[in-house]
Specification:
The chain has 87 residues and is mainly alpha-helical. The chain is built from 3 helices and 2 strands. It folds into 2 domains: 49 residues, no CATH class; 34 residues, no CATH class.
């Protein structure tokens, strides 16, 4: 589990942030790696849990096969894909 701590935001700061459009396509309606970072004094846990995976985390083609890590539902499956790729 990862906990994200926000500083207090004024109504004006909230409205200004929303007006940037940044929060509109984000789960949780903020981007820790974007403008919202100024209101986040700390997190407890893994920063990658908050940012999320890359849009297309794909391994390159190997012998004509393409592996999509987004289809791997568990860390074990992702590890198996990675091990297969590294052979």
């Amino acid at each position: 589990m990862t906990r994200v701590f926000f500083a207090a935001m004024s109504e004006s700061e909230i409205a200004t942030y929303i007006a940037t459009g940044e929060p509109m396509d984000k789960a949780g309606a903020y981007a820790i790696q974007g403008r919202a970072a100024r209101w986040i004094p700390r997190i407890e846990g893994d920063y990658a849990n908050v940012v999320g995976p890359a849009a297309e985390p794909r391994l390159p083609d190997v012998e004509g096969r393409r592996f999509d890590l987004m289809l791997a539902h568990s860390p074990q499956q992702r590890g198996a894909i990675h091990r297969d790729f590294m052979r």
